[in-house]
Amino acid sequence: MRTVIFDLDGTLADTSADLIEGANACFREMGAGDLLDPVADALTAFHGGRAMLRLGLSRLGQTGEEAVERWFPIFLNAYEEGIDRETRLYPGAVEAVEALRAAGFATGICTNKPAGLAELLMRRLGVRDLFASLVGADTLPVRKPDPAPYHLSVREAGGLSDRSVLIGDTETDRLTARAAGVPSVLVTFGPEGAGIARLSPEALLDRYADLPGLVEGLLPR
């Protein structure tokens, strides 16, 4: 079965504001106030909690991973409390996934968000049933860009990797697709915008309405 695997943060949904609020909650608890900006630091948000903590701590002149690891569980708790306050699916995402499924494609998610949080968010957004698989950062001992989570997400969706494509928004997704030996489609509506073309994916996606036709071209019958 032909299979389309989606990244979550920055690809299916704009989660940056809620992610940054989770990190800023940690910085406020430190007494430092809000160190991250929801707009200027959105790209860092899509690289995960540790990346945001690292950036904020660097602005306090702190380096090293000890503080990052100490605050990471606190970040996860803060983020979970407000996981869907500002998060929204990108326009047309639901319709595109529904069109793919109607055309006989299997769909799944492979994310570097912890699986429990990803499951919670997808349920809160009312779209969990659109995806036959969901593999998170902690589902396996490794995470993207290691190809193992991607291959697992394809298998659990009922597909074969050599008949699959990865939809993402960052260099991590591009590297994952390359390691898995599959084509990648990178969205241009994330924080990097059209600049994501620098990664030379097999295709760029400007709007979700174009995805079904684009995927048909990459994975012909």
TrEMBL record:
Pathway: Organic acid metabolism; glycolate biosynthesis; glycolate from 2-phosphoglycolate: step 1/1
EC class name: hydrolase
Pfam families on file: HAD_2
EC number, UniProt record: 3.1.3.18
Biological process (GO), any one: DNA repair
GO MF terms held by the record: phosphoglycolate phosphatase activity
Reaction catalyzed: 2-phosphoglycolate + H2O = glycolate + phosphate
A cellular component annotation (GO) from this entry: cytosol
Family assignment from sequence similarity: Belongs to the HAD-like hydrolase superfamily. CbbY/CbbZ/Gph/YieH family.
Protein name according to UniProt: phosphoglycolate phosphatase
Organism of provenance: Albidovulum denitrificans
Phylogenetic classification of the source organism: Bacteria, Pseudomonadati, Pseudomonadota, Alphaproteobacteria, Rhodobacterales
